[in-house]
Amino acid sequence: MEPYRQRPSPETLAWVARCVSPTARVVAWRRLSGGSPQASVHRVTVATSGAARHLVLRRWTPGGEDWSEWARSAVRAEACVLEALAATDVPAPRLIAATDGVDTAGVPAVLMTRAPGRLQLQPAQPDDWVHQMAAMLATIHAAGIAAPEWESWIDAHALAVPPWTRRPAVWDAAIKAACEAADGPRCFIHRDYQHFNILWRRNKLTAVIDWADASTGPPDIDVGHCRLNLAVLFSAALAEQFRRAYEREAGRTVDPRWDITSLLSFSEAWHSGIPRQVAGRTAVDQVGMDGRVEDLLAAAVARL
């Protein structure tokens, strides 16, 4: 199997070329920074009939015994979602091909178009920035796409108050609320909606990427996850602004129980994961990270 983040194998590059045309050939590739530790993502340049075309190749990282079936399932699900998104108003990459690994040295992969734009981690107009993200999330939730049932990233009943907190009562109340989260609407959700998965051009949102975890689930899981990422990198105030903007766009109030469920996925691992995702594109205040998340959690608990 191909080592994580190394160059794609000759078999994989040959598969990419065949997916474009019988005469195409891959002339360049470059690993894209950031992203999930579970996948290796490259921009590949394919030449055909004298023209060059940039595409995106995502390969799933080898893991344990259950990895192969999980990765094949993830590829099938993402391919179906990308195909369905093409019929909506959601700007997203378009599927070119997907393989369970038979064509790519045993590594399941998805080949898609390269969406326009770049990450924007230093917004010149934060108010408009969060408003556009909130409006797009409401559009995603209204897309009506069929997707697998969502899976929680935490076991709320196994959570404990972190030893570093100065407000244990906030965490006690939050954990209790997450254990009670059950009711409410279900719809199509991105599942990893946040600023690392949104592209921009001239301060306009141009695409939403990374649909590997798209699911059917509570929409406020998406809201809370985005808010957590905003608090981790920026501030609790900006995360609150995002919630209010989403509520205006969606025409309903965010359920604090699902909001809290997402916020409680924060852990010590975020201190190392966020700098990797940022990849030098902006400053990361790791020292203040815990406090910003706790401030946001306290605000969510106050809404119960």
Verbal overview:
The chain is 39% helix and 17% strand. It is α+β, with helices and mostly antiparallel strands and 304 residues long. A five-stranded antiparallel β-sheet has the order 1-2-3-5-4. Helix 3 (126-141) packs across helix 6, helix 4 (168-180) crosses helix 9 and helix 5 runs antiparallel to helix 9 (289-301).
List the helices and strands and how they pair.
Layout: H1 10-20, E1 25-31, E2 39-48, E3 51-60, H2 67-85, E4 95-99, E5 109-113, H3 126-141, H4 168-180, E6 187-189, E7 198-201, E8 204-208, E9 215-217, H5 219-233, H6 236-250, H7 256-263, H8 270-278, H9 289-301
Helix pairs in contact: 3-6, 4-7, 4-9, 5-6, 5-7, 5-9, 6-9, 7-9
**Strand percent estimate:** 15-25%
Largest sheet composition: 5 strands, antiparallel
Distance between the termini: 49 Å
Helix content percent band? 25-40%
Which parts are unreliable, with pLDDT below 50 for 5 consecutive residues or more? none
Tell me the radius of gyration: 20 Å
Structural class label: alpha+beta
Q: Choose one word for the global shape.
A: globular
Overall pLDDT confidence: 93
Spatial order of the strands in the main sheet?
1-2-3-5-4
Number of strands: 9
**Count the helices. How many?**
9
Q: Secondary-structure element order, as H and E? A: HEEEHEEHHEEEEHHHHH
